[in-house]
């Protein structure tokens, strides 16, 4: 299969994305390798579906699937995959976009089951401005399970940049051969979980440093982004992978660290829930009955306050952040 063939299904799960969905769709339809664009309107209460229909280029490649109630991104993506047929599947978030020529650069060769490229992160306040991205040397490499999992453990004070943010193109044949789909109970980390399970089944996950994906960064609250249940289900997903008997030792150690990291975030969220419902004193007493969780709670509260202060300072004392790249890359020549 060459990079010039129309062989890619682009899946866009969207909820209340009327402001950005036309840009996402337009960037997908612009690519000649794209044979299908499936937008799943996941129970939106705004004009997401109507704006999506308005972005149609008349090529017959765009379909809008509407869900009456919100089912979450994992269900929406599985629904799109079940209703598509292209041999390659690419995920695009509803407020992100592909850079021109992404698939022409990305799809060469047949040595991969998953292939991902660099991401440029763009401040939402600059999202509508013209963007010039350098041409980076591809410098391909392959991720194993341990490297992938380690790259998904976030560090406080570090910029958003975990490897889990990569948006690989996936071969449908590999997913089908191993019965792989998104875990629909997950509303956080569903991409991470799918890719980790694929790597346990021997997936060749190739990464190139050329940049073809634009991710829009919004400065939202830190601890309140996810439900407590979402974090619990994610660390339970790690435990499900850890239950396998044949994991390499270095992969098992990485998964164990990731599970502890997510479980610590869960304990912090549980404490914040209890503080809101019961008050600080009673929530503190409950936390004392879970001594193993105390380091995560104490460190998390302090860390959240510091991160929130830094975020406010960035917003009030400076303009929009400059674009930055997920992967350190070596420029070649300008496009």
From TrEMBL:
The keyword Transferase applies. InterPro entries: Glyco_trans_2-like, Glycosyltransf_2, Nucleotide-diphossugar_trans. GO terms for molecular function: transferase activity. It comes from the Bacteria. Keywords: Transferase. Residues 9-135 form the Glycosyltransferase 2-like domain. Gene3D superfamilies: Spore Coat Polysaccharide Biosynthesis Protein SpsA, Chain A (3.90.550.10). This is Glycosyl transferase family A. It comes from Pseudaminobacter soli. The lineage of its organism: Bacteria, Pseudomonadati, Pseudomonadota, Alphaproteobacteria, Hyphomicrobiales.
């Amino acid at each position: 299969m060459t990079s010039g063939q129309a062989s890619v299904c682009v899946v866009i799960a969207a909820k209340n994305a009327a402001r950005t969905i036309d840009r996402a769709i337009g960037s997908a339809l612009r690519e000649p390798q794209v044979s299908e664009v499936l937008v799943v309107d996941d129970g939106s209460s705004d004009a997401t579906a109507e704006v999506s229909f308005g972005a149609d280029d008349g090529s017959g490649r765009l379909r809008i699937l509407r869900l009456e109630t919100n089912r979450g991104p994992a269900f929406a993506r599985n629904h799109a995959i079940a209703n598509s047929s292209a041999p390659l599947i690419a995920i695009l978030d509803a407020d992100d976009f592909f850079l021109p020529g992404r698939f022409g650069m990305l799809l060469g060769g047949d040595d991969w089951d998953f292939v991902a490229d660099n991401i440029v992160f763009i401040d939402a306040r600059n999202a509508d401005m013209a963007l010039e991205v350098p041409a980076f040397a591809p410098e391909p490499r392959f991720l194993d399970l341990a490297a992938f999992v380690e790259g998904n453990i976030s560090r406080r004070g570090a910029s958003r940049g975990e490897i889990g943010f990569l948006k690989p193109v996936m071969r449908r044949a590999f997913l089908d051969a191993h019965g792989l789909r998104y875990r629909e109970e997950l509303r956080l980390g569903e991409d991470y979980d799918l890719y980790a399970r694929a790597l346990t089944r021997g997936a060749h996950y190739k990464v190139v440093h050329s940049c073809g994906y634009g991710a829009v960064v919004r400065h939202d609250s830190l601890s309140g982004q996810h439900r407590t249940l979402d974090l619990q289900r994610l660390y339970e997903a790690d435990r499900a992978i850890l239950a396998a008997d044949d994991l390499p030792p270095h992969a098992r150690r990485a998964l164990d660290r990731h599970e502890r990291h997510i479980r610590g975030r869960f304990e912090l969220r549980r404490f914040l829930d209890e503080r809101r419902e019961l008050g600080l004193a009673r929530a503190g007493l409950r936390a004392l009955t879970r001594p193993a969780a105390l380091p995560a709670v104490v460190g998390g509260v302090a860390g959240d306050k510091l991160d929130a202060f830094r975020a406010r300072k960035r917003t009030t004392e400076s303009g929009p952040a400059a674009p930055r790249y997920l992967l350190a890359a070596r420029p070649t020549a300008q496009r």
